[in-house]
Amino acid sequence: MTQPNRSGARLLSLSAAVFSLLNLLPSSTQAQGQFPTNITYAAPITITQGGTYTGNFRSTDSNTPCIRIQTTQPVTITGCTLVGAGDLIDAKNGGSTLVITNNKGYGTQQSVDNRRHGRFLEVNSGRSVRVENNYFEHTSGIAAYQWGGDGSASQTLTVRFNQAKNIDGRYRNGGGQYVQFCGLNQVRNVGNMEIAWNQVVNEPNNSLVEDNINFYNSGGVQQSPARVHDNYVQGAYPYPANGNTFTGTGMTTDGDGSSPTTTAAFIEAYNNQFISTCNAAMNIAAGHDIYFHDNRMVTSALMPNGTPLNATYAATAIFNAYQQPGNVFYNNRTVNNTIGFVKNGYNVPFANRHDLSSGACATCTGTNHLPNPITLQTEQNELTLWQQKLQQNGITLGSGGTNSGGTTTPAPAPTPTPAPTPAPAPVDPANAVFVRAINVNGAAATIDGKSWEAGSSAAGVQINGTTFANQGVTLSPATDAARATMIRSSAYSTALSANVSVSNGTYLVYAYVWEDNNATTYSLALEGQTVQSNYNSGAAGTWRRLGPFTANVTDGTISLTTSGGDANLSGIEIWRAGTAAPQNQAPTVSLAAASSSVTVNSALALTATAADADGSVAKVEFFNGTTKLGEDTSAPYQLSWTPTTAGTVSLTAKATDNAGATTTSAAVGVTVNTAATATFYRAINLNGSATTLDGNAWQGSNAANYTTNGTTFANQGVTLNPATTTARAQMIRSSVYSRNLTFTMTSVPNGSYDVYAYIWEDNAAQTVSIRINGQAALTNYNTGGAGSWKKIGPYAVTVTNGTIQLVGSGGDLNLSGVEVWSKGSTAFQPLNPFQPAPATMAAVLSPTWGDASAAAVVRPDLVATLVPVSRQRVAPRLS
């Protein structure tokens, strides 16, 4: 799970503090979109079936979008006028195949405090999404999260010919959050993506945007980079606009992806105009293979009334904001851009200019620096150039436009330089048996058909060097990809040491070393004896597999050290002398239970301690007698087990090492007591509607007598593990989240209760803890990979103050539902029992396949429903 509140990387002056939205001043006269009042609007609608839809829809509730799409069948929204206090088009739980064209959208005053204006469009796991010729104002733009398409021409993201005004993340009660005209989050490895011929104009003190265009851990592929071209973006201001600190830009590549495949990548931006964008015009803050060229960046540092903008910094920069290694942040450049960017007090290249960021633009070349002065007239000239370009290309922007031209054909991908013929694989030593190999600063790998262990997690391995990597260096001699990746990720020191646990005996040891920079000279010692004197590391890219060196081990450890200059150690390969494989030592294991007694249907924490003297522990399995309860493949080895029948059980743990040897622990006896009789009290679906689970009636998110501070979100496209019923899956995947989540159920009669909670993971594993009524329920629980879910509990709670409260801490906790059982005879009586909606409240809308009337005309039949909104976490991740 990506953390919420994780601000995109931005270039600020070195002394600038991180900007806090809490410091934004309130505005009691905040301007809103001036929507048409001479047409009739229908109530919000929910689309559950594919087709083409048109009409005019309005919502005055920030929690209810004008159009909610809940089908993955192809849907076209066209010719609509949408007016809303929240999202205009919500496709977070549908809309994988979507065309949004020739619509008008207007954001109005929010219905609640501390809520930004809604999106024009928000879509999750899109497959094919085309957004063209729309007009929208006072919205928080277009947001796309993850991708389900294959990146072909028919399964990609296209945003063209749109006209946007005042991208606005402000709250009605003051403050706000940063939003984007077009924000992509984990829309990665998508070919044929295009964002082109859009016009975005943000007015100072009437908008709040950060990066107008943001690629967060998103991008194209090598053969088909994401293309951002021929856009006109005017305005990126703090609020109030004369503030001194701001992090917004015209465009930024961003994201904390820690590998080449998860960061921003393969993006080409050209022929764009970025005007009056305070902090910066175009930044490369993360990623690789990003190419900005032939753009225009003009900022006069003045508002239209001539008053100064104080938060300008530099037009463009290339800086590794997340301090990622060289195989994640590389091959980025800005070339042949035209720039005139005012920053008072700087002189780059002219007085009071900062065209290229000082110290962060080494690969910014061929810049055409506009002459001083840069004025409001200079900015006005850019608008004139834009309007001329539209006319020359026959482009009509916004709703009502039909455009066949103006789309630049993608340049063919450069032909990759043929890879050098790899050197032959090193020869194995004679009369020796492979024991183990360590990838010092890399992941587990297979090289020469042998399993290499990851240096960071290999058992019995200690290396004191400073880790680093530079995957951009060309190796000499050339070698295969797996070996090259291992070589170029290493540890270095002038006095490096590596200790590897093995059984006593005689070994042959190889050391992989390389040079990433300038030649240096050093010596290697094995078991205290010099085995390589005054080795010259050679020019950048030179690597060698030094050895084999003989080591006679009597203390269970092979010790390798260096002295002299900086030595780069990439890998250690160990063979045992002789033709007989060494006797594998079985692992050790012991088991502990959190308690010697537990109640039926109550969770019991089991913890095993396991180690392997001559290898590593592959897994630890937990058993009740001969019945396997589960397993854990990494330390600490833990399992939460919930017994379902009373009696005495005998629990054991079995450890298996990397060679297949096993050891079973001593048994631990636990008494399972009969549970007190409990009856269903109530359950709440925290971000969904009323439903029935296990024969019990669950209330929806609008139930009375409870509160939560969690942010709502949903992602129904995630595959759950383990699989479950449709109703339960829908409840689980629509939830609330927070790093400091609280859920409080009130008006609970005093007495004894059992509490269950449904938690799940939508993205990357988090470590969370939960307390219920002040008592620890979960401690440092790992939520698992995307789709993992668990019904935790029951947790015995004694209510003395009419309240049941669950508090989460640590990482992001996704809480989907809370289920409570009474151990007495208490039955839940809601203050406002739900009443079925009368038939007259269901607006059945008729279809149209021709011209739309002013009123809503829709096909297929669908029912206008007020469904509680679910929030996907795109905004926090991008802002």
TrEMBL record:
- Residue ranges for the region (Disordered) are 394-426
Q: Which domain of life is it from?
A: Bacteria
The protein's UniProt keywords, in alphabetical order, are: Signal
Q: Which SUPFAM superfamilies match?
A: Galactose-binding domain-like, Pectin lyase-like
Bias category Pro residues: which stretches? Answer: 411-426
Point out the signal peptide segment. Answer: 1-31
Pfam families from the entry? Big_7
User: What Gene3D superfamilies does this protein map onto?
Assistant: Immunoglobulins
Any idea what this protein is called? Answer: Right handed beta helix domain-containing protein
Its taxonomic placement starts with: Bacteria, Pseudomonadati, Bacteroidota, Cytophagia, Cytophagales
